[in-house]
C-alpha cells in the first residue's frame, strides 16, 4: 500500500481498519504516514518521501522520488504481494501499479484521478495499470464502466467519520474559546507552496474583515511543524489579532471522539468555525461535511500554470468548478476565487457574507447535509471486500 500525503494517509488508515476486521493477520506494508502507522503498518519509506506539489518542486526531488520508486518496485518484485493498493498519488502509483500488474500482481487504485476535469487521456494508463478502481464519488462509476475498467463506488470515508450534525460549541470548548463572537477558520493548505502563495492573501483578507468585526476570532490549523513555521513567517509580515494556530499538540485536538476517531487539527477548526476560507482540495470537502459555508481559493505561479496547461493540453478544466463541493453539487454552491480573483477585497466580501447572511448559511447547511448522506457508506468494508477478493484469487 502506498499513500503520498495526509489526506491519503487518512483514507488508507480507514481501509486498513476494514481489512483487519476481515483478516487480523494481514501484513500491510509500503509507504505511508502516522495514521497508517497506528494500524500496524510496516513502513518502508515515510509518506514525506512522496509529498511534493507541482512540477517545479517535483523536478527538484526527482533523485529521491526515483530512488523511492525503485526501492519499492524492486522489493515487491522480489517479494510479490497478494495485492497492491495505491491511494491517490497517481503519478507515482499508476507507474508502480503498471509494473506490478505486468508481473502478475493484482492492483487496486483508490481515489480516481480527476480525469473528469483534466487529462482524460490518462484513462488509457489506468486501463493498463489498474485491476480494479475504487472511487469516492458516485458520478465516477459511469466513466470507468464506459471504458471497461472494473470499478466500485465505496463512498467517502470522511463522510462516515465526520458527524452529520457537528457540535460547534463542543469544538470551541475543546479549544478553550470563550464568548459568542464570530469565528473564521483559515486553511491556506498543507503544502509549502500553498502556504507561501495563499497565507499572505488570506491574512490580508482577515485584516479587512477585522475592520468590520474587531472581535473576529481566527483559527488556523497546521499539518506539521514545518508548515507552521512557514505560516508564522507570513504572519510576522501581516499581523492579525485574535489568531490561534492549531496543530496536533493543541490541547483538546487529538483526543478521540465518541467513535474513537482521532481528528486532524483542521477538523476541530472547521467544527468550531462559523465560516471557512480554504485552499481548494480535500479540505474543501471536509468543510462541506462539517456543513460550514466557505470561500474556496487557489493560486498557481505563472510557471506552474504554464506547465499544467502544457502537460494537460487544456486551457481550463472540462468542468466549470474546481472545489469538490461544487463539483459534487454540479453548481456554484460556494464561491471560488482563483488566480487573479484571489484578491483580499473579494475574499473578504465573500467571507463576510458567509459569516453574516443567515439565510445563505441555512441553505448551505441543507445542501451539504444531502451531500453528506449521499457520500456516507461503509467505505472500509466495501474497499476491503474488493481488495481481499483480488488477493484471495491471486493467492489461489
3D architecture notes:
The chain has 396 residues and is an alpha/beta fold. It contains 18 helices and 13 strands. The strands form three sheets. A six-stranded parallel sheet has the order 10-9-8-11-12-13, sandwiched between helices. Helix 10 crosses helix 11. The longest helix is centred in the middle third of the chain and has 21 residues.
Cα radius of gyration in angstroms: 21 Å
* Percentage of residues in strands: 5-15%
Report the biggest beta sheet as strand number plus sense, adding barrel if it closes.
6 strands, parallel
Task: Give the N-to-C terminal Cα separation.
Answer: 21 Å
Question: In percent, how helical is the residue content?
Answer: 40-55%
Low-confidence stretches: none
Coarse structural class? alpha/beta
Individual helix count = 18
